[in-house]
Write the structure tokens for this entry.
Amino acid sequence: MTNRDLNWTLLRSGLLCLILLFLGSCQAEKIRDSRPNILVIVTDDQGYGDLSAFQHSASDIATPGMDRLAREGILFTQAYVTAPVCSPSRAGWNTGRYQQRWGHWNWGKELPAEERTLAEYLSDEGYSTGKFGKSDFGVNYHSMDVREYPLNHGFDEFMGFSSHAHDYFLLSEEIESLTPDPHGNSAALGPLFHNRDRQGFENGYTTEIFTDYAIEFLKEQQGAPFFLTVSYNSVHHLIHEVPDRYLEKFGGEKIPNYDPERDGNYKDYYDEYAGPEEVGEKYRRWYLGNIACLDENIGRLLDTLDQLKLAENTLVVLFSDNGGSPLTGALNKPLSGSKYNLLEGGIRVPFIMRFPARFPKGVVYERVISSLDIVPTCLEAVGVEPVSDAKLDGFSLYGDLQKSSPEGINRGPLFWQFQNEYAVRDGDWKLVKTKERPGGTKLYNLAQDLVEQVDLSEQEAAVFDRLVKLHENWKDSMGQIQ
């Protein structure tokens, strides 16, 4: 072989290697890109009767955007969250673990470094991660230098606020500077966080702003897997803060925005409109306008997925962080109870999943699930094993939901404890101690008594004792003193 032939042979070998490397790279990219995207949409204080896809929905509610998800996916009728208020409920779903495992028995507790979030799992797998809206673990508000801040537990991008609530309209630097108390736990106003800075808005409405930023995030992520959380503050109070076109549609009274010169402290204004004991029709009209705006913006997100040809391979999860609030005009029909207590109306919530590439359409799933199931379901969809010591408390629904007729999973009992109230759900039986049912711990059969009126603790003493023991054992297993 001449030197020329040898050089040509080596050149061809080199070119072949480069081609094989390129094809291998393309194949790896194809495999990587085949992993599903995940979009989690969290509504705030949405009532169990305030989703028109439900047969039991209130007669005056219309949620076509959310109903579209139900038509194209799976609607859950017995979905629970881990607490009847926002902060502990959000801590539970983000980690897939009972928040009591790190002492989160009440409103707030620091998020330990060892508690991994879904965002961290997916970020470690190369997912692009973004969160827009409310971030609320119950502590360490209004600060970027804490683990609870989204960029410090797995998110690449964040636009929103960290507190129980935030004014929908008042987002400018000027209003913050003029307000004596701009940074309360619920009564908060002024600029929003954007990554490692704060951004003011002279005009705008949080529901629409969060949607706008989420849509820009989606447009930037084409070709790469993403995890997006859009966590709206709608329909939390201040429920009267609604764009004029929605007020006009539902006959809602227009209330002037807070003015520091006229109203003094923002907290005083907030408390005045946070809801009296009996909210009545006036609040219901505000609520209907607020949720109509929310639903329209959820529709915008879904339209964007369609336009970008991302819908087929995107797992969408939508749910409310807890039951409807008694302070806003929300309806939890046909359940008793509401936000703040452990009757069904406080912890059973609207819940939908859609994944066109894997899940059937138009299924009504009537078995018990929990927001604890979100993390394991998403991890199985992505093909990720939780870390060995994670001890997730939820179960993956991924396999069951791919069946045309899902069979349910054998999950065992669910547990709740919030302050001095507690509950256990095991099959159709529910044990509950709540101030809404005075006189001690009660036992109900939810299949026969959905409104939790007939106490069977004496007639079914063996069941009562068994569930009491289950709760005691669960509480001991949490490893944290209340």
The chain has three domains: 1-34, 36-411, 417-477. Residues 15-32 have pLDDT under 50 and may be disordered. The first strand starts at residue 37 and ends at 43.
